Amino acid sequence: MIDVHCHMLPAIDDGARDLATALRMAELAVADGITHTVCTPHIYPGLFPNTHAGIREAVAGFRGELDAAGIPLQLSYGADIQVVPGLVQELQDATLPTLAASRYFLFEPPHHVSLPRLGDLLHNALLSGYVPVITHPERLSYIESDYELFLNAARQGAWIQLTGGSLLGVFGPRVQRITERFLEDGVTHLLASDAHNLKNRTPQLAEARAAAAAIVGEEESWRLVRERPQAILDNAAPDAVTSPPALRPGAPAGALRRPARKSWLARLFS
């Protein structure tokens, strides 16, 4: 598996607090079946003022530490990018890093304030040849009221990335239900760990991938953690990649929605 969103780099943001934590996170990732991690620290002006050059240097240093520790995890990098003025220009100037130097970049909407011009921002990025990967929309406090906006963003060409822990209930039942809804509506491109620590946000995907398979099927669940992440590493054009079910020609949204569960009595006599 390939994890395209992970805060494993030590002491650079609110992820791994030190090298020992980062190395242990890498060990957990490998043990879980992750072969390649894209390190994506926050770039958040005023809070996490990371730079492209600083992230690149941190990854180079961490690669050396992984080699010394004998941990067989491949690394690439990008950033968890908040909405900033001149976003597209900063991508073009390489002031902001894309994922593994590809056309894809992580786009983190504000957690508590809806973006009234989200469609315009995404449209401008797409017109400029970039593919915004919208990170964990299921965890936004306003997602219920703006859910259709994110479906439209996926139809427009943005990619949707959900957090594995969201599907497993780590962020509570509300977020879990919304995560299931995104999967059932067939618009989810990627599943990533968004790992930050060794406690409740670990760099693991296997359990979440299996949970996703119960909704979207085995084949599509592997696309969430293998095929599409590999397409990002390869800088493949979006139209060369298998789309999520509802974004394929002629497929209606909600086509994967599961029927209501039977009562225990109905199941007993079925």
TrEMBL record:
The keyword Cell inner membrane does not apply. It is an enzyme of class 3 (hydrolase). Signal peptide: none annotated. The keyword Oxidoreductase does not apply. GO terms for molecular function: manganese ion binding; protein tyrosine phosphatase activity. InterPro entries: Caps_polysacc_synth_CpsB/CapC, Pol/histidinol_Pase-like. It catalyses: O-phospho-L-tyrosyl-[protein] + H2O = L-tyrosyl-[protein] + phosphate. Its EC number is 3.1.3.48. It comes from the Bacteria. Pfam families: CpsB_CapC (PF19567). Belongs to the metallo-dependent hydrolases superfamily. CpsB/CapC family. PANTHER family: TYROSINE-PROTEIN PHOSPHATASE YWQE. This is protein-tyrosine-phosphatase. The lineage of its organism: Bacteria, Pseudomonadati, Pseudomonadota, Gammaproteobacteria, Cellvibrionales.
